[in-house]
Write a structure and sequence with these properties.
209 residues; alpha+beta; 3-stranded antiparallel sheet; two-stranded antiparallel ribbon; 58% helix
Length: 209
Amino acid sequence: MPSAHTTLIACPECDLLLQEIALPPGGAACCCCCGATLYRNLPDSINRSLALTMAAAVLYLVANAFPVLGINLQGNGNAVTLLQAVYDLWKQDMPLVSTLTFVTAILVPGLELILMLYLLLPLYRGHVPPGTGQIMRLLHAIKPWGMVEVFMLGILVSLVKLVQDFRIIPGVALWSFGGLTLLLAALASSFNHRDVWIHLDLKRRREGG
């Protein structure tokens, strides 16, 4: 039987209550019933995640400020940014496509990076920001709507089709979106949600005790 000081956690898949154990660096705890991963011990998770978030934020700004690609036909060229593309889709009576592009490729990734910076910068300095619990839940809720990788796949498919008829000039934003896709994937694998909840729990214990 667990003692009064034992920390119990619930499996996110089968809801089995299990006793939390210490893990070696890089180790993972799995449910003995269904095999789901319960938590990981990722060394220096906060610092790594902050560095990746700041790098991703820079690429995000570049990707939205500069043209994604240019099209040249018989000496006539045209280059558009992502926001201009969203606006053009709206003017062409495609509000659903325009809205989905804006939400999944611009709004949600930008909001996710802002929330991550709001969390990680204070944690890096040894403080827990106000509203940490709500921010973590919001990050979990909006995560499926960030689809930069799907956007990049769509651009690559379009390039393959357009290159036969036009001269395509990749813009700075296109390379930035590629780098942003890789950084967001690295951030997802390095960010340890459990570390944030541990900091929040320690703060509540200090305030309560």
